[in-house]
Amino acid sequence: MADRPVPVIEKRLMEVKLGELGTWLGGRDFTPNGIISAVRRGHDRYYNKYINVKKGGIGGIAMLLVGYVAISYLWEYDHIKHDRWRKYH
After folding, report:
1. Is-contact 76 68, C-beta < 8 A?
2. What pLDDT score was predicted for residue 36?
3. Over its length of 89 residues, how does the chain's per-residue pLDDT go in tens digits?
4. Which of 8, 45, 61, 85 has a CA 20 to 30 Å removed from the CA of 14?
5. C-alpha triplet 80, 86, 89: angle, nearest 5°
6. 16, 24 Cβ separation under 8 angstroms
7. Distance between CA atoms of 74 and 85, rounded to whole angstroms?
């Protein structure tokens, strides 16, 4: 039996080809409830994959911590760059 083609709207982002990206984005739900549910699904997927495991390590928590540090650095980059060129004498 041959597999039936899956509609573009039902595919996950990593399965969408570049030419189908516009159609895929057009089928997304960009209402506030749709965005909240997408964030909730992403959180649930991350939690079940990295945090809620039988033999877990520090990988999931370390990934969150590294992400937090990177975002904090990007937010403060202008201030850090300004201080780098300042003379203290």
Report:
1. no
2. 95
3. 567 888 888 888 888 899 989 998 888 889 999 999 999 998 998 888 877 877 767 877 888 899 999 998 888 877 666 666 666 65
4. 61
5. 140
6. yes
7. 18
Q: How many Å apart are CA 25 and CA 28, to the nearest integer?
A: 5
Task: Enter the tokens of residue 37.
Answer: 């549910």
Q: Which residues contact 34 (CB under 8 A, 6 or more apart)?
A: 28
Residue 75 tokens read as 């937010």
Q: What does the block give as tokens for 51? A: 């945090």
- DSSP result, 23-66: HHHHTS--SHHHHHHHHHHHHHHHIIIIIS-SS--SHHHHHHHH
Report how far residue 21's alpha carbon sits from residue 28's, in angstroms, rounded to the nearest whole number.
11
